[in-house]
Amino acid sequence: MAFRLAPTAASEGFRLEAHDTVGSTNALALDRARAGDPGKLWVVSKKQDSGRGRRGRVWATPEGNLAATLLVVTNAELRLAATLGFVAGLALADALDAVVPKGRIAIGLDGGSDGKNRFELKWPNDVLASGAKLAGILLESAILEGDRFAVAVGIGVNVVAYPKDLPYPATSLGALGAACDAETLFLALSDAWSENARLWNDGRGLAAVRRRWLARAAGLGGQVAVRIDGNVVRGTFETIDEDCRFVIRDDEGSVLTIAAGDVHFGAVASAQV
Q: Residue limits of the BPL/LPL catalytic domain (predicted)?
C-alpha cells in the first residue's frame, strides 16, 4: 500500500510528498518552504536516517515506522504557532483510536490512570500507550518573507520497532499487538489533522484545543518531576495554562508554570531523574 491522503485532507487542499527513505522529513519540509512552497504539504516516509527529537536528541525511524511532517505556513504569531504541537498530539491520538482495534491497547501509566484513553498525551510532545512512549512530536520553524513563519510539525511513530536503549519506557504498535502499518496510520492521521486544525483555527480556538488535550493528559493530578536546565522540580501536575504551559503545585504549595522541561511521572518522579 502506498501513502495517500484522506479524501477530507485532499479536498481541503493538502498535498503529499512521499519517500521510501529520507534524511529528515522536517528538514525537507523547511527546504520546501524556503523554496516558496505555500504550506499544507505532508512529507512522509517509512524510514528516516537523521531524524531529530527535542533538544537535538536522535529520533530513529527504522524501516516500517512512520515519519511524517506537515508544513504549515502562517501569519499567526510564533507563540501561537508553537501550540501546533498540541494539535498534532490530538490528531495522532484520534488517528490511533481510529485504526487500532479496541481492546488491543491498555493504558498502564506509572503513577496511575483511570484507563479512559488508550492513548494518552504527555506534555509537551509525546504520545503514550501502556505507559510507554509510542510517538514523539517536534516543531521546527523558519522565518519567511512577508512576516510569515514556516512551521514543520514533525510526527514520529514507532509502528513496527522501538529503541531499547532509552532512559524511559518505549513501545511500538507491533509490540502492543496492533496490526497497523505506517500507510494506514498516515491515512487516518491526515484526516484527523484536518478536524483538529479547524478547531485550532490559527490559534483562535486554542482554548478548545487545551480542553481536548487535558481530557487525554497523562498523569494529570499525579506526582510529577520536571527537569529544567539540570534542576528538578517536584509536585502535582495540576493543568496546562491558556498558553499550554505546564502547571504544577510543588510540595510547599506554590504554583509553578513551566514553559520547557522533561517530565517524569509516578514512581519515577519520586526517584532521582
A: 15-201
